Amino acid sequence: MGRDTSATGKGREDRGAAREHRPGAPPSSAILDAAFRKAYRSTPHGDTHLDRSRRRAKLKVIRSSAVVLRHLGIERRPFRTPELTEFQSLLIDRAFGAGALDRALRRVGRAEERIRGLTRDGGRGLQRASTTDEFAADVRAFYGRLASFLREIDPDLLLLRRIHAFLKARPRLDPAVPTVVVAGFPNVGKSSLVARLSSATPKIADYPFTTLALAVGHADLGFDRLQVVDTPGVLGRRQVNDAESEAEAAVTRAASVVLFVIDPTATCGYPIADQERLLERWRSEMPTVPFLVVETKADLETTPSDRLHVSALTGTGLEELTETIQRTLAARKPPPAEAPVADWGEWETAAGSKGSSD
Ligand SMILES: Nc1nc2c(ncn2[C@@H]2O[C@H](COP(=O)(O)OP(=O)(O)OP(=O)(O)O)[C@@H](O)[C@H]2O)c(=O)[nH]1
Ligand SMILES: [Mg+2]
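A: This is the predicted complex of the input protein with magnesium ion.
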């Protein structure tokens, strides 16, 4: 019926909700809306009109500040440890620039401190004020400064949200679970193997760079859980793109074992010599990481090499590959201190092999 609700709490609430969903609105506007809505609903008790006015003003300061601080806490929450693993931090540094997340978090933390100080000062000011006009002026001044503190960190809040969306689109690898990282040139059949070895259902296509971000599947090798990570293809150039950078991060920092996939057929579009060069470079750069090398698409063509020849299409060699992965993992050194030792004890015993001491 077109009733104007602008003077009521309900009307304000609706406007706030609309703003929250306005695309491109700075984060501060939705947070301030929520804060002012909450403050507006204050209905204080008091003996005199002046008493009630003072209390109402104080409640506005306290409640709006509490809402803002709660929202800022929510924005920072995904980046606390242990929610954020070391590997995720590395991915973020590579994708958004080293230290960018820490700087944004520090600025948000500092804004929280300033808002706490502002709230204390606001409370004291209201204690000294003696007329309803003064209360209103104090609250207005408080709101103004609260809003400006918050607007100052809009770029940081936007960055936190972008990083959060980035993280949500990537697997969270459990550092305590053994991890096989499947890597190699583009289009060689990495995702096809990951789909065969694990629960993952990656996109598979006959063109390079089908996989653009890390994905994880889980496998049960009969005695323990295993994470199988699909990576984007890497061309082995000095300058890497974002997808290649992500693959390198997984190879260097997340892998218990790297399963390096070589496609000896012409179907991937890259010469085998280039693939071998990348393998050699990685091996020399990461002498402590075990590399398992397979030649794939064995249904099309095989080389005389004594490497494992597999086919994701027909299943040839996959059983042997699984056994080799098991043996390689069982022969690894004990994991770093943060991984639960008990898991690895079971792992080694069940695999029927003691960890090597090299
Ligand atoms: N004949 C045959 N084709 C295969 C085999 N494995 C993969 N392919 C094909 O090779 C192409 C690339 O496979 P993907 O698994 O997407 O390769 P990828 O290495 O993940 O590719 P990117 O994600 O682009 O790096 C697809 O057309 C697959 O069907 C195989 O064992 N035999
Ligand atoms: Mg792929």
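Residues 190-191, 202, 210-211, 230 surround magnesium ion (ligand 2) (CB under 6 Å). Residues 100-128 form the longest helix (29 residues).
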